[in-house]
Amino acid sequence: MAEVDPEFIQAPEHRPRPEAIEAENIPLVDLSLSPPENLVAQIRNACENWGFFQRRKRKLSRDEVNPYGYYDTERAKNVRDWKEVFDSTVQHPTVIPASHELDDMELKELVNQWPEDLPELRLVVIVVLLIYSNLCIVIRIRIRIQLLMYMPEFDLIRDTL
User: Which pTM value belongs to this model?
Assistant: First the structure.
């Protein structure tokens, strides 16, 4: 079992105060295992015996140039959180202003970064993002219909929703 990174250790004043908690040999699962049966067996064992597991780290990380990708160093109360994030965007590439300055016309392009060892992740994330994007369009249309039913003058304010 790997040692716990000191960044995850909360200061004593922020720790919960249970009677006693001790844990050894927390399962560490490698999500890139092949064949999938090995991965399923590891996850099943971890869930049956522990109810959770740690995941081996991905090498794909976000940076200042491209903030999309894997991220696991968020902090709360000056202690590293025990969560991991994978950021992505619907539009590929995504073009945003390079700075917050109003007179700065420079744009920067951001692209999604996908882990090579999980090729199916890209398709799943894109499908989910498209489903949610379409759901947002349906919600906008329904809101507009409701506004027009109860506020006919709303039709004068076009394309605000």
Answer: 0.46
